[in-house]
Amino acid sequence: MLRRTMYAALFAVPALLSAQGAMGAGQDAMKKDAMKDRKAMMAPHQMAHGAINTNADGVAIKGYDPVAYFTASAATPGSATYTASHQGALFRFASAANRDAFMAAPEKYTPQYGGYCAMGVAVGRKFDIDPAAFKVEDGKLYLNKDKAAQAVWLKDAPGNIRKANGKWSEVAQRKLDG
């Protein structure tokens, strides 16, 4: 029921914007942002209900560069010099090129399950992550609580992805576990 209400509200955003009068350049940008956010929200295994794991300063992935996981196959610290905001979270990047790649396709680089521990989500829990405990699988970034959780995740990544996809909507609503 909650999901249906949320989706109804998201679909109403563009209509509300156009009902406010002539669509100026600023309103066009707002409409595009609302549409982009709605599309991201329709992938419940990735970003259900806008739940993104951030620190107290609103920084995602503990300041690590999400693009570098794909391009360098490594957990690479980002820099406060190169940042981008996506769905209320601040992402940091090791270079301007990585920031620009992210801005062109944030849904491609944003970690699954809002950047919470993928193995935790698979078992119905919500844990913080160690940015070094990661796996890019089928073009998607999965982060884990630590190397031990990652080892369990890797024993059956496809099965764990199926489990986590089924549980993310519920887990996204919870507070962080221990």
Keyword list:
178 residues, alpha+beta, 2 domains, two-stranded antiparallel sheet, 9 helices, 48% helix, 15% strand, disordered N terminus
Ordered list of secondary-structure elements with their pairings:
Layout: H1 2-19, H2 25-41, H3 44-47, H4 68-71, E1 79-86, E2 89-93, H5 96-104, H6 106-109, H7 118-122, E3 130-137, E4 140-144, H8 147-155, H9 157-172
Antiparallel strand pairs: 1-2, 3-4
Helix content: 40-55%
What is the strand content?
5-15%
Radius of gyration: 17 Å
Q: DSSP helix count? A: 9
Uncertain spans, ≥5 residues at pLDDT below 50?
A: 1-50
Shape: globular
Count of separate structural domains = 2
Distance between the termini: 29 Å
Mean pLDDT: 81
The count of strands amounts to: 4
Biggest sheet strand line-up: 1-2
The biggest sheet amounts to: 2 strands, antiparallel
From the helix content, strand content and strand pairing, which structural class follows? alpha+beta
N-to-C SSE series? HHHHEEHHHEEHH
Structure description:
The chain has 178 residues and is of the alpha+beta class. It folds into two domains: 2-42, no CATH class; 50-172, no CATH class. The protein is 48% helix and 15% strand. It contains nine helices and four strands, in the order ααααββαααββαα. The chain has helices at 2-19, 25-41, 44-47, 68-71, 96-104, 106-109, 118-122, 147-155, 157-172, and strands spanning 79-86, 89-93, 130-137, 140-144. It has a two-stranded antiparallel sheet. Strands 3-4 form a two-stranded antiparallel ribbon. A hairpin with a 2-residue loop joins strand 3 and strand 4. The radius of gyration is 17 Å and the shape is globular. The two termini are 29 Å apart.
